[in-house]
Amino acid sequence: MKVILAQPRGHCAGVVRAIEIVERALEKYGPPVYVRHEIVHNRHVVETLKAKGARFVEDLSEVPRGARTIFSAHGVSQAVENDAKARQLAALDATCPLVAKVHRQGRRYHGQGRTVILIGHAGHPEIEGTIGQLAGPVHLIRDRDDVERLDLPADAPVAYITQTTLSVDDTRATIDALKARFFDIVGPDTRDICYATHNRQAAVRELSKIVDVLLVVGAANSSNSSRLREIGADAGIPSYLVADGSELESQWFAGKSAIGLTAGASAPEVLVKGVIDALACFGPVELTTLPGIDEKIWFPLPPELTTPDLPSRALEPSHA
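The chain above was modelled as a monomer; its predicted structure follows.
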């Protein structure tokens, strides 16, 4: 069985930074440290941090007054930030810098008097946080069909922003439909789309050309992991989203000679290695890596976590 790894795959700089913030906070302040929502959408990561003393909550009412609290990589609303201040919580913000950039873009467009249109998935924590960061009205749409349902005149000054786990390819048709409908419209340059989302999806498209089956390591509630599986399915190959190696089924690989393997941005490399070990139980494995982008992106930590007693660490994905 030939197993071909996508490059890049797995943890991005925003995820690495968020996990590092929790780990450093535990080292510096000691447990417990409270985290609002899953720091990233991966059960293995969450359970590992729990074992170190992190406590995950969905509402700040579950956090004792004055306790050390961390906001997840998905970002939070201003209402959550205000609630943390009112409860005198010592808050650290692990919001991905690229998500925070979308927040700033939205505020800038509102400041220009434009109505903001947000392209994304309703109910996703990032979407809830982004909407909650903007003082003016926000129209949430998912695809080009939603564009026609917008109750706005064609000459309205509008602007669009997007969920970071959507790539240029995901949003191109929707953005084209917006530009066709509205005369006065602006939006971020395509270079502002999350690099990790774009790179991982591009790698899967190349991988799908040369494999018989695609495995995506990631959580079911991970938007970017689900999209990677969909890309493989769209290419016409059997594609499966698995949390870890225990979920593999032997019939998936019957008569297949080349298996593609990638991981969503929230999935650590240890889970990829676990899937490779599980595949080896079905027969000999020949492992190769598809040539791809060697990511060297990193994001700085909050200054209170970069002190002489906690020296700087590498923030790049371990396999990059």
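DSSP finds ten helices and 13 strands in the chain.
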